[in-house]
Write a structure and sequence with these properties.
Layout (H helix, E strand, L loop, with lengths): L1 E4 L2 E6 L2 E4 H26 L4 H32 L5 H12 L1
Antiparallel strand pairs: 1-2, 2-3
Helix pairs in contact: 1-2, 2-3
C-alpha cells in the first residue's frame, strides 16, 4: 500500500511505513545477499579454500546486519513519529530486533 506520510511517499511494509527508495534499497540488498549465499554454496561444492568461504560468510553476516538495522531504524522512527509511550510496545519492538 503506497501513501503519503509526513510529506513523503511511503509504502506499508511488514507493519511499518517505509520510504519507497529505502524499500527498493532493501530489496536490492537482499538480492545481493542471495547472490553471495549462492556463491558460498558453489565455492563449497568446488572445494575452494576455507578462508575464502569464511570471508564470504562474514560479508553475508555484515550485509544481513545492515539490512536488519535499516528495518529496525524504520520501526523506531515510526514509533517516535506516532508518539508511542507504551513501554510494552517499545519493548516488544526492541526484543524483536535483539533476538
Amino acid at each position: 500500500m503506497i501513501s503519503w506520510v509526513g510529506g513523503y511517499r511511503m509504502v506499508y511494509y511488514k507493519g511499518v511505513y517505509m520510504d519507497i527508495e529505502q524499500k527498493k534499497a532493501l530489496v536490492t540488498r537482499f538480492a545481493k545477499i542471495e547472490g553471495h549465499v549462492r556463491s558460498i554454496k558453489t565455492m563449497t561444492e568446488e572445494e575452494r579454500d576455507l578462508e575464502t568461504i569464511m570471508q564470504q560468510i562474514a560479508a553475508v553476516k555484515k550485509a544481513m546486519d545492515a539490512a536488519a538495522k535499516l528495518i529496525y531504524t524504520e520501526q523506531m522512527k515510526e514509533l517516535i513519529e506516532q508518539g508511542e509511550t507504551d513501554e510494552a510496545v517499545i519493548k516488544k519492538k526492541i526484543d524483536s530486533f535483539i533476538r
